[in-house]
Amino acid sequence: MRALTKVGFIWLLLGQAIKLSIAGTLPHIDIDVRYREQTALLEVSASTKLTTEHGRFFLNKDIPITRVDGLTNVKVTDGSNFRSFELTDESSGLIKLEYSIDLRNKKHSSGSGVAEQQNALGSADNAFLSASELWHPLFNGPFTARVTIRCSRSLSSIAPGMLVSDTVSDDVRTRTFELKQPTLAIDLMFGRWEVQHARMSGKSREIDLYTYFNEGNSSLANEYLGLTEDYILFYENLIGDYPFNSFSVVASPLPTGLGMPSLTYISERILKYPFIKNRSLPHEILHNWLGNGIFVDYQSGNWSEGLTTYLADYMVTELRSEPEAREMRHGWLRNYGSIEASGGEETLSDFSSRYHTASSAIGYGKSAMVFHMLRRIIGDESFKSCIKEFWNRYQFEIAGFKEIKRTCQSFTEYDLSSFFKNWVETKGAPRLNIELRQNENIGDTVDVTQDGEWTHPLDIVFEGRSESETTRLLVSENRTALPRKTVANAESIFVDPDFHSWRKLFPEEIPSTIRDFIAAKVTNYSQVDTRLNIESSLNRYFLENATQSITRETKPLLDKTPSIKVISTQSVESLIEDGEIELQLEALHHLEFMMLASKVDDNAILYIAVDDNLGIERIEAHIARARHYGKYSWLTINSGGEIVKGKQKISPHSFPIR
Question: Who wins on pLDDT, 546 or 208?
Answer without folding.
Answer: 208
